[in-house]
Amino acid sequence: MENVVIAGSGPAGLTAAIYAARGGLNPLVCEGLSPGGQLTVSESVENFPGFSDPVSGTDIMKKMREQARRFGAQFKKGSVNSVTQSDNCFDLYADKDRVKTKTLIIAAGAEARRLDVPGEARFYGRGVSGCAICDGNFFRDKDVLVVVGGNTAIQDAIFLSAIAAKVTTIHRRSHFRADACEIDRVKKIPNIQWLAPWVVEEIRGNDVVSGAVLRNSESEEERTISCDGIFVAIGHTPKTEAFRGMVEMDNEGYIKVHAKSTATTTQGIFACGDVCDSIYRQAVVAAGQGCMAALDVQRYLRKEI
To answer: Which residues are known catalytic residues?
Structure first.
């Protein structure tokens, strides 16, 4: 019987592991299919506290893992596939193994939705990004494309307009899902250009992105456009499918937690990071929530909550 199992090994999961281990809980971390989470696709991170020089996301996560292990955290390869509850504990099924635990911290993260076009996978982290706030500064005074959808995507375009020389927004429909006030606001910014209805057909470059092939979704016209970076802002998918039916979620699959807490609707299950955060989606925010989750688990096991 484990005291706590942590599903996920990104900034949220590993911070939870550090605090839980220091609290004497001997946590077991199920690392998932992509140990280290989304941050590992970033070749250069400049906004994580404690690093005065740019550092790769992989290096940050490696140091966090080593720190958690030093305090006694244990690690298991693979993902949690399903959860059942019985006799005030939980049975987790991770690949072919069954694990019993008193508590569970869900920190499985989320995935940025991708365009699934030629060149995207090749240049992800080398000009293609799913996070404007994370990577926007690398494109200061350069030309970027933003593939947009709803309000968050429009806000990304506005954010990038203060950094990049030119922002070209690509939208596949001639009408927009974003609020009218947001559309009016962005259309007044002089260095933002609109292309609708267009879609990205291919991303091109050598070592880094140099441009994209676009197609008009109504006329089928094609054109090639030069750019230094492409931001794919078409949403994120929380990796919460394995926990459906076990905890309450919103319509998009994000886990609901109580106010000022990481506790879910099921006693003994806690959530932190991008599985419950559809707004900020930053590594440092996820790490802070991971700390909260570990402290909440300690209080729960002491019967304080």
So the answer is: 131, 134-135
